[in-house]
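Two proteins follow. First one:
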Amino acid sequence: MIRIILADDEPIIIKGLRKLIQWESFGMEIVGQAYDGNELMQLIEELHPDLIISDISMPHRTGIDIIKEIKQRGLPVHVIFVSAYQEFSYARDAVAYGAIDYLVKPVVKQQLESVLDKAISLITEHNEEQKRKGKLQLLERKNRHEEMQDALIQLTDGNLSPRTKSFEETVEQLQGPYYSVLIIAVEHLKEETDRWTEKEKKLIEFAIGNVLQEVFIASGIGYVFMKQNQHVVVVSHDGEDEPILLAEDTQYKIETFLKLKVSVAVSRPVSALIKLEDAYAEAGRTMEMKYFVGLKRILSYVPQSKLHAMDKQLYDLQWDVIRSITAKAWTEVQSALTVWLDRIKSETFGDRSLAISTCFSSVSFIIQELSKSGVQLSERALDKRELQQLLAAFETFDRMSHEVIGLFEKTYNEMDNESGNKDKMMLAKIKQYIDEHYSEEITLESMASLAFMNPYYFSSFFKKHTKQNFKQYVTEVRMRHAADMLALTDLMVYEVAEKAGYNNARHFSDMFKKRYGKLPIDYRQDTKKST
């Protein structure tokens, strides 16, 4: 409907105009009426009409005053004046200022209808023009926005030269003096995302984009774009703490309006747009930290400590787990598993891939040694491919740890329920004793006594279950520990010999060469060269 205000200092004229025609049939609605120029201007500001039909001569402000102010302020209002015969030339001047037309009192119905048809045509044409302009402006804004997005993607890839026009335009839009990169990631909780369709995922992406537009683009402090299926924001700011506050605001609004949980990773500020490649890479590494510290976090950059090779302590913790599983109560097994996993977490902190691969290798070693000791494991526990896929599926280290502990609890319970378990547990106890006391004197008789068997039966029992005679097995254990000490410590060869259970260093060297094909000192040198 076209909105109209009628204005005349004579109420009877307004009343007559109201009744003169059926306004609704013209698609028009009278929204107000005024009795002087000041009141008319006030109603124009309050009611935002499309058309005014006004007496040209009114108290306080004349029609000319009104139309001049409408023109000066650029208001989208059209005017038809009504004038007495003696004001005819005055009304003609008003047309020169932009009035649609004028009517002479008394207003005749046919003349009013004719002028209204003209007004409808002009208003429709004006509205269509405004729509066209609006569409053009929207298209221009869209094109500028897409150009900015493309420039920022190139900058974060390190592919935009400072000598290009795109770079100069980006500098004009984001004037610094500091720039930070934020990456926003929706927490893909498995129980939720399994139910999301592709259409729903697109809607979620669109909704998050709208929130980010409001926070960053509408306020003129940054630009948003998609990269590698993540929302990325480049922020231009003054204070160094500003990006963290913006990240908190973003997280709060997404959770409040969309009921979604997100993590936001924030890079350190850089002082030039050309350094956005480094800032983006840093934000990406920072996002990986949620694997270690937990979901739904604001993650600011923390320098990573230098990662180093797994040390002997982790190796020993693996054996603690093996010994616990084969000889101790579940509470002690759980404690050993927790200590071992915490060690992996601290050794690999900041590198998700390293954490997963280390855990996989460590779990595989434990399962392998359990299998060697005679423990019957399920086919699933022995399937390394399935194990690797399982460990890589979790979003946090703590969730992976929980699954690993559950895996070993199941293995532990299966061991308890196996037939013939007494022999296997006895063998595991013997192996545990040898592994813990290999540096001491270990004889067939002493171990037979530990197993409550006579030496002859014990020798047969041991070979049946291990496919090795007792003396060979003890030598294997001592040699394995000796090799570890040579590779991981700076002990002298004679000291390694003593700790491995040999009083004679020469005899130890001969036995070591027989087992590994080289003397201890050569083995150590070759091992260090390969690391």
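Second one, unrelated to the first:
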Amino acid sequence: MRHSLMFASLAGLATPLAAQEVEEQGEEAAGNEILLIHNGPRDYIVVEGGVLGKPLSDRADPVRYIWEPDQGTGQRVENIVRDLPGWQQFRRSDARSANPTSQGLTARGMGGNAASRTLLILDGVPQSDPFGGWVNWTAFDSLYLKGMRIIDGGGRGADGPGALAGTIQISTRRGGSHASLAYGSRNSVDADAHLSLDAGEGDITVTGNYSRGDGFVPILAGKRGLADGPAAYQSYGMGARFVTHVGDIGRIEAAIRAFDDRRSRGLPFSDNRNSGADASFRVLKDIGGMSSMLLAYAQLREFASEFGAVSADRATVTPTLDQYAVPSTGLGARFEVRPIEGGFYNDRELRLGLDWRRTSGKTRENSNFVAGAPTRSRDAGGLTETIGGYAEWSADADRVNLAISGRVDHWSIRNGRRLETNIGGTVRSDDRFSDRSGWQWTGRAAVNWWFADPVRLKLSAYRGWRLPTLNELYRPFRLGADATAANEALAPETMVGGQVKLESNLDKAEIGLTFFYNRLDDAIANVTLGQGPGLFPSVGFVAEGGVYRQRQNLDSIRSKGVEFDASIDLSREIVLNLGYAFVDARVRGSVVALMLDGLRPAQVPKHAGRVGASWKVDGFHGDATLRYIGKQSEDDANIRSLGDALTADIGLGYDLSERLRIDLRGENIFNARVEAAISSTGIIERANPRTLWLGVRYNFD
């Protein structure tokens, strides 16, 4: 972003303003918070209509912004995240073919299983699934994004529990109306619309999307059998957000959205469905000269999935598990006040806040099929709750920015139960687990030092923590011949770490180089404890070739590495983007998991990087990206290896008029082999084959 061009959102209208124009508004921007974010020669000025300004601590912390990310036809929100150096989903597959339970968000080698170890927030509301901790990526495809705010490293008090490796905050846009439609390979369709209307003293924004495709066959060609077919998918979402000002109350925001996502894994008895609805209510008000915010939200989720056993010749599939209902609920509230508020005219800030979150849910499933009918059932779940308070102090001095934050939380795990019965008969087991509770603390300190223009040094140290999910605590599961038992005694994960970042903001280049070290204590992982054939606790019989695992707290996962990112203006029309992450993550095993000591966590590549370019000239625009992901292990024992992959994406477009745009996009255009999973019998599943899109977009404004 050039020094003369800043992003502004004034009363919900996204309009670029020159820095001088924003300064001239000053007090005339009534009811708007103006914040200058120091970034060397490229200071960012953000005008937020009545919203709490970006915290002053952003000047000290290693925070990155993505303003108005490209949401052209065929694009997905998760694709924006995957290009952040060091950030990844648990598996390589995207939301069109992956099982939703494998799509936890993590960073910097903090792997082990599919629960998220980074925090994803949408307009102030945490987004991890209340039962399993994964991310429902299709739920975001209907959004019209204003931007993303990425905080590397955990421990920021205002973010709350779960922000171990970092936080991504997504904000949605007001104003503007558009519609787009794209048609792609394998009869794929992506459609979305965004409509903004005046409503009295405020406005209402309505969004919607629809996506479907016949899908590709996940199993590699040489290993397929008669049972293997394409993994079809279909999803839709819709939402509405109402914003207004009400007299002395202040600014009021109310939002609601819903989604439904259905996918097949390419085999009989492999369908899954994920649906949900969210509602939130936020009030922003000046109290005695202090900005304040009150937020309340509710999340409802419903998940279902089928599993089958495939014969050796992959000709037939028999049902093994019907997870027919996984209802869960997330409730939460937050209050924040700023007795001292930083921003355009103040070099100090104090934030104080309280928040509460409760998650509850259970899994209902049938198993042990005989002649196609289940003979056993399971009902397992519970409730977790956290309540905490935080404080954050930020200050600016000559060439130095400081930020210190901390919070204390009380956590509890209650009502844990796992009931197993013979269908239509006796109770096999009825385990009721003891309630537990405790205290955890979070802290972070950050310094930004302008030691030589235009170069600055950012130092930060942090401590964060995460409660185990209800899924990790109470639900055993099977994947092929492998079986994994739950563990109701799991302890919370805690992480300490630090990072050093060098940033340089030159006239035509922004460059960042980060060195980090993290230690995740009591890391929850799926630990191998035995080999089939045999009977094992909580899961029953494991066939020959299968592996028995249980979720365990490891001593720690220790991760160190380097991240590099750069954006270079090669000319007024061409921008080059570079990103690379080297992550050396190792397990430190306990007595139970001693065999894992020194190995890499599952699904963590050592190398990942990308080279991209974008351009726009005379109505034509385009982008091209090369991505590389290194080898990684499918399992905790590092026996099953997934190969590295180099993929290429390209997009070309033309503005037919000021309102009408046409796009041609290609994903993995050379159809590189991207290995996503490997079974105990050596069957390899692939992800993200070549996909071509042709789309149009029309702006009504």
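SUMMARY FIELD: The chain has one domain: 9-699. The two ends are 24 Å apart (CA to CA).
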